[in-house]
Design goal:
The protein is of the alpha/beta class. The chain has a single domain, classed as Rossmann fold. The protein is 45% helix and 19% strand. It has eleven helices and twelve strands. The strands form three sheets. The chain has a seven-stranded parallel beta sheet, sandwiched between helices. Strands 7-8-12 form a three-stranded mixed beta sheet. Strand 5, helix 5 and strand 6 form a beta-alpha-beta unit. Helix 1 crosses helix 6, helix 4 packs parallel to helix 5 and helix 8 packs antiparallel against helix 9. It is globular, with a radius of gyration of 19 Å.
């Protein structure tokens, strides 16, 4: 186990559970963030917060001093250019700094899809380049290729109504970030996890529409979905000169084509299979909304 872990991207919905899991298990956790005030607000006490930007190598160097592990959880923004600069360029900066700092373990999140089949899609191409850069680095590493997260479901809401963008026919094994964080922690305890890619799948398979309906029914007591065609999103993006809208349309088009890819058997065997169902996850969210203390 590492004794001092730096988490890059530790304030988001997928980074926070990892930060809290390692802290709970006795590891010193340092969080690299652009916004210290927001980090204090969302993380609470007990974390060593370091301000910086992955596009500024000097700040990455300083943040990694004294750390023996680093977990990369970068979110590359809403355009191809941001994705390239942050996820790929930022990862390269982290790898260089980590090698200089003598980091002993490194991990990152990726996506459980056949990235090689979509080299023309910037999202997929950049994810593959990130994976390749990490696989080629000298630091003992582990890549977690996760499917869709339950925590992403609220992001599909617009004006209090869930929106299904494009045709999304594929089934996904939706996973809770709490289970994902536990599996990352377990991987750091195992030499056998070094140099591996693990596919992280949740316990239940359902389409995006089914997941949204179940989430909406559990959390809001209604089951209705607005449907937005991909072409309409693209036209809106062009008319508004908004590259972010077009990026979302292209991403959802890619998801509709690609689906889920991978095999979770080895991840489940070594790291412990995810157990949290969507209904259980929703019950926890409702308890949190009521102000009740929820373990995990």
């Amino acid at each position: 186990m590492v004794s001092n872990l730096l988490i890059v991207g530790g304030t988001g919905t997928l980074g926070r559970p990892v930060a809290h899991k390692f802290l709970k298990e006795g590891c010193a956790v340092r969080v690299f963030t652009r916004n210290l005030e927001r980090a204090r607000e969302v993380l609470g006490d007990g974390f060593d917060l370091r301000q910086g930007d992955v596009e500024d190598p000097a700040t990455v160097d300083r943040a990694l001093q004294g750390c023996d592990g680093v977990h990369i959880n970068l979110q590359g923004g809403n355009t191809d250019r941001q994705l390239e600069a942050i996820e790929y360029g930022g990862t390269l900066n982290i790898l260089k700094s980590a090698e200089k700092a003598g980091v002993k373990r490194l991990s990152t999140i990726s996506y459980a899809v056949d990235l090689d089949n979509y080299p023309h899609i910037p999202y997929a191409a950049i994810k593959r380049r990130v994976e390749n850069a990490i696989a080629e680095c000298s630091i003992p590493h582990t890549i977690f290729r996760a499917t869709h997260f339950m925590e992403s479901l609220p992001l599909y809401f617009r004006d209090h109504t869930p929106c299904l963008i494009g045709d999304q026919p594929h089934h996904y094994h939706w996973v809770a970030a709490e289970d994902y964080a536990r599996m990352i922690f377990n991987a750091y305890q195992l030499e056998e996890a070094i140099g591996r890619q693990f596919d992280i799948f949740g316990p239940e398979a359902m389409t995006m529409e089914e997941a949204l309906l179940r989430y909406c029914t559990a959390m809001h007591g209604k089951a209705e979905i607005a449907r937005i065609p991909i072409w309409a999103m693209k036209v809106m993006g062009y008319l508004l000169f908004d590259r972010r809208i077009r990026f979302v349309a292209e991403l959802m088009e890619f998801l509709g084509q690609a689906g889920e890819n991978g095999n979770p058997i080895e991840a489940n065997r070594l790291l412990g299979a995810p157990t949290i169902t969507l209904e259980q996850w929703c019950e926890k969210r409702k308890a949190e909304r009521r102000g009740e203390l929820v373990e995990g």
